[in-house]
Amino acid sequence: MRLVLPEVVRREAIGGFHRNHDEKIRQVRALLRKSSSRAKEAADALIQTYIDEKAGYPSILDARISEIGIEVASLPDVDHEELTQRAIDRTPPFNETGGGYRDSLIWLTALEQVEDHPFDDLTILSKDSIFGKRKQTLEEESRRETGASLVVVSSLAAMEFPGEYDSGEFELSDLDLTSDDITEQIREALIGLDISRWSPPGPEQAEVQHVERVDLQPEAIRVKKRYGESIYEISADAVADIDATVFVIIDGPGEDLELSQMSARWDLSFRWRGEAVGENTRLEDSGTIEVFGIEERHYPYR
User: Fold this and answer.
1) Residue among 182, 174, 122 nearest 152 (CA)
2) How many CB atoms lie within 10 A of CB 145?
3) Consecutive H or E run containing 258
């Protein structure tokens, strides 16, 4: 097994860190205009700290990547003509509007890693919903070009490592659990969940306020037993009809901005994960939610 970080992701991590610190520096400088001389001295020292942190971050990141044992893969061997055609054809991970340049570089980097045997399985760890939404199309390309299967996860906890689970097959009934038990836990896990990352353009923040309905996909309920332990991990794919509270920034009088609270009703697709210890027992807690995406209703805000 190899752990690989695409160079484009490394550069974006550095760029994100720099942008974050640039914004902090901008905010401190904006406050300096109304500060005392003593406060300005402290602010200057803080700004210099931010500047030093920006300069040192790439080497710190590279050292951590090396310590963990992750390989950094160079940018993929692809020309502009091929990338342009993929964008024109909206080939995933390009989206419906032609966006997805960096995602496509990540995807093509991933394909290069499994071109040679014995790497027959490819797992992409990304919180970008495009990989989950278009997994079927991406896997078709992966199998066609490299023969490798594809798994997409949005968290390290969702990854499976060799020898981690028993080879046996298990069902909910083996644990004295039903789909209703799963649905009840999902409802609890969803309330208050921050879904801002997946919300349509517009809201600054969005979180689940109410769950009207949960539709489990029976064929996508999985039960696995950790090797050598009495812990069972359960996962289920589902779609929930939710009411969300959203906050939207709008133009106020003059140059002022105002924060407006609204409501939205969406279909939320996700994967739920939970654990049970031993057989004939209840679920340990409400579990965790891995969001795949959101679909708007006809009237999204009210």
Assistant:
1) 122
2) 13
3) strand 257-277
pLDDT exceeds cutoff 50 at 21: yes
Give the per-residue pLDDT at 300. Answer: 44
Give the model's confidence band at 175: pLDDT under 50 very low, under 70 low, under 90 confident, else very high.
Answer: confident
- Are 50 and 25 in contact by the 8 Å Cβ rule? The answer is yes
Q: How far apart are CA 128 and CA 65, in angstroms?
A: 21
Token look-up 């200057």 returns 44
Pairing of strands 205-225, 231-251: antiparallel
Tell me the backbone φ, ψ of residue 141, rounded to 5 degrees: -65, -40
| DSSP-assigned letter for residue 70 | P
pLDDT for the residue numbered 254: 55
Q: Name 104's Cβ contacts closer than 8 Å, sequence gap at least 6.
A: 83, 86, 87, 91, 93, 94
Nearest to 4 by CA among 147, 93, 101, 124: 124
136 CB-near residues (< 8 Å, 6+ apart): none
| CA contacts within 13 A on the Cβ side of 176 | 7
Residue 8 has pLDDT above 70, yes or no: yes
Domain ranges of the chain: 4-71, 75-158, 172-301
Q: Answer whether 154's CB lies under 8 Å from 125's CB.
A: yes
pTM over 0.70, yes/no: no
Question: Whose CA is closest to 272, among 184, 212, 199, 211?
Answer: 184
Percent of the chain scored above 70 by pLDDT?
Answer: 89
